[in-house]
Every structure is written in C-alpha cells, then in structure tokens.
Amino acid sequence: MVQSTLVFWGLPSSTPTQILTNRSAIAKLNNKSKSDYVRTPIPVSGLRKIWRKLIQNDESALLMINPFGGRMADFSETAIPYPHRAGMLLQILKTVDFNGQPSDTTPTSLRRIAWLRSLDALMTPYVSNNPREAYSNYNDLDLGVGSANYEEASVWGERYWKRDNFKKLIRMKAKVDPHNFFRRPQSIPVF
C-alpha cells in the first residue's frame, strides 16, 4: 500500500498520498545504510545477539526485514539485473539516521556510523557470503568505490549484481553512455 511509503518517510499514514508527488514537501533522508541478504534461517542465538545490539543503539537505528520467496524464484538471477532470487529468505536494511546533527561528521554521527558498522560485522555469520550480497538501491560506499578497472569496480559491483549481471551492465553502459556522463562513486563503469 502506498500508505506504507508515507510511514517510511516519517509521515502519518493518514497523510494524503498526493504529498508524494511534491518533492519539496518530503524531507531528504540523512542517514547511513547497509544491506544484506539471508539464505539460511538465523538461529535463535544469533537473533538474541542482534537484539542485544539493537538495544545498545541511541534510537537512531532502523532494522527492516523483508521476506522473500514465492514467485521471486521463478525468474533466473540473470533474467534482469536484480539477482537476489532463488533460495533467498530475507533482505535486511540496517540504517542509522543523523537527525538533529548538522552533518555526518559530528561526534554523535560518527558514533552512530561506528555502531552500524559493528552491527554489520556482528551479522556476518548469518548473511550471504562469497560474495556477501547487498542491495544496489541502498548504496554503501563502505563496500568500495571507483571504477578505473574491473578488479576495482567488482569489489562493490558483484555484491550488488553478481558477476554475470555486473558484466552485462558494463556492456550495456558502454553502449548507452560510452563517455560515462552519468556517474557517481559506485556507477556502472565504462571500460
């Protein structure tokens, strides 16, 4: 439901949905996010560790767990660039916000970032690996930046799209944006 978008943006669910068409009416998110995918159930002992870690936060954190399954597995992981399909149980978004902070470099913001990174490290045994998968819409510059060569770009690119899809996206980018006009620290590279 579109009302969930309102709530996600910190608005009451009773807010008229037309507000979503007004870009200036919605505050920009000021946060740091990390994501993971889970292929095997997290044991109760792991859930307890995660819960204890969440309690240590200063109420700036959001942990969102999205269940997967159903029709997701009906499509090959190379059918479209989004590869996180068959065998995936959950997608996890971990976020800390910088509300009340003028930047992400204040002592409070840096403490929140350190806490998020420690939560990410704590979750390592319970999430996908080889590579540890991540969702491309939750850009995480901690995964790496740069695209001077495939080795450099693959550090983050294969986590978002896996190897075959990442190579396919590189070929497509070379055709539609050969001069790399559309770029950012984790853009699909042009070689």
UniProtKB/TrEMBL annotation:
It holds the Pfam family BBE. Residues 134-189 form the Berberine/berberine-like domain. Keywords: FAD, Flavoprotein. GO terms for molecular function: flavin adenine dinucleotide binding; oxidoreductase activity. InterPro entries: BBE. PANTHER family: OS08G0158400 PROTEIN. This is Berberine/berberine-like domain-containing protein. It comes from Lactuca virosa. The lineage of its organism: Eukaryota, Viridiplantae, Streptophyta, Embryophyta, Tracheophyta.
